[in-house]
Specification:
Layout (H helix, E strand, L loop, with lengths): L1 H29 L5 H23 L6 H12 L2 H13 L3 H30 L1
Helix pairs in contact: 1-2, 1-3, 2-3, 2-4, 4-5
């Protein structure tokens, strides 16, 4: 348990650092008008999650999942975990549940950020 926790912590630090550097680089190269850095990490993270879930399973590397998948990719983008969860539900034939998960996560996530912003603004006014 402690070994896995340390792997997740190390991977998370590396992933978060990679996300920060990606955002800085995207902003310098493309500009501030659109969150391209976030788009890049979400798409790249989802792609890498897809690659790694197959490679680690086929090569017997699942013991590295806490470091690489949960830690590094989780620190890089949690969207990759969301994408994997949605695809797993779909692949299991739970198409309705997958659709509900995707729609619910997006709608509730957006609602939660609006609620958090409005509540905090009201409290700090």
């Amino acid at each position: 348990m402690l070994t896995n926790l340390l792997q997740v912590a190390l991977g998370g630090a590396l992933g978060a650092s990679a996300r920060y550097l990606t955002n800085v680089t995207a902003t310098r190269l493309i500009g501030h008008g659109f969150p391209w850095g976030t788009v890049i990490v979400n798409i790249a993270g989802s792609f890498l999650m897809g690659v790694l879930v197959v490679v680690l399973a086929r090569k017997g590397g699942t013991h590295l999942a806490p470091l690489i998948m949960t830690g590094m990719l989780g620190g890089f983008t949690t969207f990759s975990a969301f994408s994997l969860d949605a695809f797993t539900l779909y692949e299991r034939g739970q198409i309705g549940l997958a659709a509900a998960y995707v729609a619910g996560t997006l709608v509730l996530g957006l609602a939660a950020i609006v609620a958090g912003i409005l509540a905090t603004r009201a409290l700090m006014a």
